[in-house]
Design goal:
The protein has 85 residues and is an all-alpha fold. It has a domain of 39 residues. It has 2 helices and no strands.
């Protein structure tokens, strides 16, 4: 999110901001990969269409909940680290 950077950041503030951005990017990619792989394993383990229909809603709802939790946690850690400085 480079457009949210302040123009006059100290090196420590810039490092925290870049670290937060990279953590959000890589964390989101890892979350997508793990969630997709796990969902595929669960989906293939279910034999009947009825149970696949039952499991579909939690699979679709829990992904964005976990992703938002990850993004909020990284932002909170970033603000805590910036506040310590």
């Amino acid at each position: 999110m480079p457009h949210t950077f302040k123009p006059n950041l100290h090196p420590a503030e810039a490092t925290i901001a870049v670290g937060g951005c990279l953590t959000r990017i890589f964390g989101s990619c890892i979350w997508l990969a793990v969630w997709g792989g796990t969902s595929a394993l669960v989906w293939n383990a279910i034999g009947t269409r009825l149970w696949r229909a039952v499991v579909l809603l939690p699979l679709l709802v829990l992904f964005p909940v976990g992703l938002i939790t990850l993004l909020v946690a990284v932002k909170k850690m970033e603000s805590l680290m910036a506040r310590k400085r």
